[in-house]
What does this fold into?
Amino acid sequence: MTHTQAVNRPRTLGTTGLAVSPIGLGLAALGRPGYINLGRDQDLGDDRGVAAIEARAHEALDEAWRLGVRYLDAARSYGRAEAFLATWLAARGVAPSEVTLGSKWGYTYTADWRVDAEAHEVMDHGFAAFDRQWPESRALLGAHLDLYQIHSLTLASPALDDREPLERAAGPALAEARAAGVGVIVKEALANGRLTEPDTDTDFADRRAALRAEARRLGTTPDALALAAALARPWADVVLSGAATAAQLRSNLRALAVVWGGEAEAALAGLAEDSGAYWQRRQRLAWS
It folds into this structure.
C-alpha cells in the first residue's frame, strides 16, 4: 500500500453511512471535449473525439482507483461522464459495494460535443427536469448510484420554494451543516485552474506567488497545497479533484501528505477573494 492509498482511506459522509475517500474525483473535465479549466489545450491536445475522451477518462479513473480514491462524482451536464463512468465500472468489474458514486441533476448538456458551442449547459431546477434526469442517470449507473444531488443550487431555484435561504458566508454555514450531520463535498477547490501553474492572470500574480512560495516551503505543488487548504476545513468530508489527466491527479493527491498548520494558514489567508469577484472571474473563463 502506498502512502497516498493509506491516507486516502475512506471516512463516512455525514450521517449517510456512505464510505468516501477524503479526496474524490470529479468528472467535469473528463466527460466532454470543452470545459473552463485553464490549460486544457495542453491537457487534451487536438483529438477531442468521443473515443479519445473516453480513453482519457478511463485512464484517470484507473489511476484514481490505484491511489485509493473511492468517491467518484459526475453530473447529467458533464457531457458523457456518466456513460464513461458506467463503461469503466463494467470493464473493471467494480461492484457497487466497492465505491461510492454521486451524480447531479439540474443542468442539461447542450454543446453537442462541440468546443465552440454557443451554450454548453443550461440550468433547470424545475421538478420536470428532475423527473427527466433521474431516470437517465439511473439507467446508466444503476445500483452504483448512491447519491443524487441538485447541481449548483441557487436562491432563485424552485427547489427552495418552501425553505428559508441561508444568507451567510459559506464557511460558517457549512460548519453548521456538518455539525448537524450533513455531509459536505467541496468542488472547485482549484478555482477551475486559477490555483494551478497554468494560470497567468496578472491581477492574481501576487497571490499566485504567495501560493507558490508556501508550496515550495512545504515541498509540494501549488495545486496540492490548495486542495490541502480545503481538506483542512473541519467541515470538509470530501474535496474533489477535477483532474483531466492521470498526472494531474497524482499531483492533486499530494495534498494528502501536506502537514497543515498555523504557518500555512497565515501564509494563504491573503488568497481569499470576495464571492462576487470570484463568480465574475469564473464567468469570464473561456471554454476550451
